[in-house]
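Structure (tokenized):
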């Protein structure tokens, strides 16, 4: 179903478009394990049904329409999906650090919630502990995870697979974009921006660059790490150690969550059109000189190179970062000549 409204006001100085859509996908195709006798270990199967809905608002305004002109185009959109049916039994599908389950959007982030570190022995004694009694048990200076549940459905003082839970969403509350055009006589300026708000990113790179292991270079967010009970650091960054204890490495947890909220100025163009009498004197039709900057500014608290994660290995793993490249920046000085 699609519904839309277009409206214009104030002599076309304000126009608004609203679109809404709802749809159902019955073809959530996934690779599922099949018996080896077929010669393939996985096969594409239709395993579910997903409900989608979205809104988009587009607003165009003419703010000034005089010697000095100023127009604004603004859009904001939301998108939601919800799994309605899944597989023959309705069981959740866990794929890396994402879970797909009935009643939730596809590929929500799934892992352990973290709650700082054990700053001293007294805190460690209170637990909860990963693998108590074992060689890789939690120690002072290790991450404290949240005891969400246990085999009996209640917290049990131990951290294991029962404590994994939904820890974030790869879906923004909204996406947005805006372009402002200014012009005065022969000079015009265009500024474009876009961004997303409210989503998280699962930063797979943190298994290496934020695990406080000497064999990898570490992110600066780990600078204030736990050194001793007297110098516990920022209370959030575990001690460096090569052999993982307390299992703060390798297992998907909130420590790998990064923000996906960003604002990017993706285009600034300043141009000047030479006056017609001057141009005709030198036998040309038009001449325009411009200076263009592509992706000059990015405003975000995201730690990786690029919060605009678009590379997904599969439909079940949205929002996975893995050393994504930053977008190219460029500055171009150009001249358009018409003969
Ligand atoms: Ca537990």
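Design, position by position:
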């Amino acid at each position: 179903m699609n519904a839309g409204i277009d409206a214009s006001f104030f002599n076309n100085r304000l126009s608004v478009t609203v679109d809404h859509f709802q749809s159902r996908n019955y073809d959530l195709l996934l690779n599922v394990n099949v018996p080896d006798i077929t010669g393939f270990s996985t096969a594409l199967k239709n395993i579910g049904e997903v409900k989608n809905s979205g809104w988009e608002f587009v607003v165009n305004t003419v703010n000034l329409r005089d010697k000095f002109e100023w127009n604004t185009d603004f859009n904001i959109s939301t998108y939601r999906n919800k799994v309605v049916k899944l597989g023959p039994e309705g069981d959740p599908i866990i794929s890396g650090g994402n879970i797909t389950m009935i009643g939730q959007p596809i590929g929500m982030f799934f892992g352990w919630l973290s709650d700082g570190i054990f700053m001293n022995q007294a805190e460690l004694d209170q637990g909860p502990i990963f693998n108590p009694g074992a060689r890789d048990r939690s120690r002072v200076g290790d991450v404290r995870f949240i005891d969400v549940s246990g085999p009996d459905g209640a917290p049990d003082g131990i951290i294991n697979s029962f404590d994994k839970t939904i820890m974030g969403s790869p879906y923004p509350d909204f996406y947005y974009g805006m372009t402002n055009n200014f012009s005065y006589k022969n000079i015009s300026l265009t500024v474009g921006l876009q961004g997303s708000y409210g989503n998280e990113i699962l930063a797979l790179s943190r298994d290496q660059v934020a695990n406080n292991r000497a064999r990898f270079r570490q992110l600066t967010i780990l600078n204030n790490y736990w050194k001793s009970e007297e110098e516990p650091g920022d209370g959030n960054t575990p001690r460096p150690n090569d052999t993982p204890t307390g299992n703060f490495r390798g297992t998907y947890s909130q420590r790998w969550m990064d923000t996906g909220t960003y604002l990017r100025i993706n285009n600034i163009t300043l141009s000047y059109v030479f006056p017609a009498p001057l141009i005709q004197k030198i036998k040309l039709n038009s001449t325009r000189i411009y200076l263009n900057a592509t992706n000059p500014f990015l405003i975000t608290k995201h730690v990786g190179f690029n919060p605009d994660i678009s590379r997904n290995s599969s439909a079940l793993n949205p929002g996975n970062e893995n050393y994504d490249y930053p977008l190219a920046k460029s500055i171009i000085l150009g001249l358009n000549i018409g003969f």
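Reviewer-requested clarification: The mean pLDDT is 90. The chain is about 5% helix and 45% strand.
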